[in-house]
User: Which sequence fits this backbone?
């Protein structure tokens, strides 16, 4: 593998809006390991490094079609460049800040993330995806797992105190829609917009419209990704921590309060529209505001 080469930045969709930082795939960082022995959950494969640059390292198990790097490297590079430019760096003095994309064929179901805080995955930001196959349109699972990396290691703090509120996929829907818009993947943005707008959820109660009535209005009216940038910053500044990790989860009322701070407008009425009149109640919301008076709007 050469030290620098032209990177084809074409990705599935309709062109690029975000400036990905140029089309040259420069390798100035030390190369990732040539192999990587999995040692997490039920995973036990010896992974092979198939391509990399200063942003991304891609690993396949033995059965993944090696030609899939033709779309994976440019797509994941653009994903991680946009993510770092928007949400900040995901590294410390001893880590390289890359996103490590792991892909499996015919084994393991779904995907999972890890972050540079986690010894379980050798202190690397990881999007681990299976079971394939991986044609060029297979962008949703790796972008979903990358969303979890973002929430789990933002502003240099370990953990996602909002995960128990928005669960596995609701923040990821915001992240994916914004990402596809930013990268000019218009057809993919339209595709997930339709799917997520028409979806309902059973939390915090049945019939909740997380994307249609909560996250999309936040994105549309309060600065696109910047509203979540501010949310993560407010958490890092004001939410309880122990060492370098969050010490507990947000309640729904605290979540709405912190999101109100990020939007710079009281979002309780919007939350009651999206989730129901008792989610949160006035008493719960007032208690959250009293507990965190530094968050203002």
Assistant:
């Amino acid at each position: 593998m050469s030290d620098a080469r032209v990177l084809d930045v074409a990705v599935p969709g309709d062109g690029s809006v975000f400036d990905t930082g140029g089309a040259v795939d420069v390798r100035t960082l030390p190369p990732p390991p040539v192999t990587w022995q999995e040692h997490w959950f039920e995973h036990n494969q010896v992974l092979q490094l198939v391509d990399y640059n200063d942003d991304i390292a891609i690993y396949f198990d033995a059965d993944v079609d090696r030609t899939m790097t033709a779309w994976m490297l440019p797509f994941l590079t653009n994903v991680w460049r946009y993510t770092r430019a928007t949400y900040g760096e995901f590294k410390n003095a001893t880590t390289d800040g890359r996103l490590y994309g792991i892909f499996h064929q015919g084994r393991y179901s779904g995907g999972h993330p890890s972050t540079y805080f986690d010894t379980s995955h050798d202190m690397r930001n990881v999007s681990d995806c299976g079971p394939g196959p991986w044609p060029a349109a297979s962008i949703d699972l790796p972008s979903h797992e990358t969303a979890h990396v973002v929430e789990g290691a933002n502003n240099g703090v370990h953990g996602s105190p909002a995960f128990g509120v928005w669960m596995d996929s609701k923040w990821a829907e915001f992240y994916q829609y914004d990402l596809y818009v930013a990268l000019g993947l218009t057809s993919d943005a339209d595709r997930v917009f339709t799917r997520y707008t028409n979806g309902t959820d059973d939390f915090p109660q049945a019939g909740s419209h997380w994307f249609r009535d909560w996250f999309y209005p936040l994105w549309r009216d309060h600065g696109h990704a910047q509203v979540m940038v501010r949310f993560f910053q407010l958490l890092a500044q004001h939410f309880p921590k122990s060492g370098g990790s969050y010490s507990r989860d947000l309640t729904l009322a605290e979540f709405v309060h912190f999101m109100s701070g990020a939007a710079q407008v009281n979002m309780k009425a919007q939350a009651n529209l999206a989730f129901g009149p008792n989610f949160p109640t006035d008493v719960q919301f007032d208690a959250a505001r009293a507990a965190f008076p530094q968050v203002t709007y």
